[in-house]
Design a protein that fits this description.
By secondary structure, the chain is mainly beta. Helices cover 0% and strands 54% of the residues. The two termini are 19 Å apart.
């Protein structure tokens, strides 16, 4: 979902993807259609373009709505994130050939593909989510390959096997166990109150 003023932008699909705008007054309208069997992520960049991760297993694409029409790109997009410089980052998730899982950066002109073959990234199985931290590091979650921290200077792989939280009176206890940590100085825990 994208919240924009008094509207919510969402995407749905039944073999043909639809981008919908739902207004706070109860009205809604369809922006347009695009190829896509699955909708796994939706983001809006600083220029107002709406990016849709609508593909896995050769059944869809990365789609971008520019305010007038859709443009599709031949990436089996599973996740999208926009950085502070308006670069669009895409995580892919091919269904049949996990060797082709890619982290892709689009700077508005050029596409840069990061894989295990051309970057410090390890072999990854389906990039399921992306998020930037306050230091500009890109956190990558995968279906079966662990959690990684990436920046264009390198990667800090942290492979978690367990993570749990429990409430104890007014405190929260976090427990986790890693299988491997490379170039990791520790973990920084942040807390967000529900009203911020």
């Amino acid at each position: 979902l994208i919240i924009s003023g008094d509207s919510i932008i969402t995407a749905t699909t039944t073999f043909i993807g639809k981008l919908l705008v739902l207004k706070s007054d109860g009205s809604n309208y369809e922006i347009g259609n695009f190829d896509g069997l699955y909708i796994s992520d939706l983001k809006q960049d600083n220029l107002g373009n709406i990016w849709v991760a609508a593909g896995t297993g050769s059944w869809g694409y990365l789609a971008m709505y520019n305010g007038t029409s859709f443009v599709t790109y031949p990436y089996e997009a599973m996740s999208i994130e926009i950085d502070d410089e308006n670069n669009v980052w895409i995580g892919t998730g091919p269904a049949w050939d996990n060797d082709t899982t890619k982290l892709i950066k689009y700077d508005g002109t050029d596409w840069t593909e990061y894989t295990a073959a051309n970057s410090p990234l390890p072999f990854m199985d389906h990039i399921s989510d992306l998020a930037f931290d306050n230091d500009g590091n890109l956190w990558i979650t995968t279906l079966n390959s662990g959690l990684y921290i990436f920046n264009e200077e390198g990667i800090t792989p942290v492979e978690l096997i367990t993570f749990s939280a429990e409430v104890l009176d007014n405190d929260v206890r976090l427990n986790w166990q890693t299988v491997s940590e490379i170039n990791n100085r520790g973990f920084e825990i942040e807390r967000k109150s529900p009203n911020t």
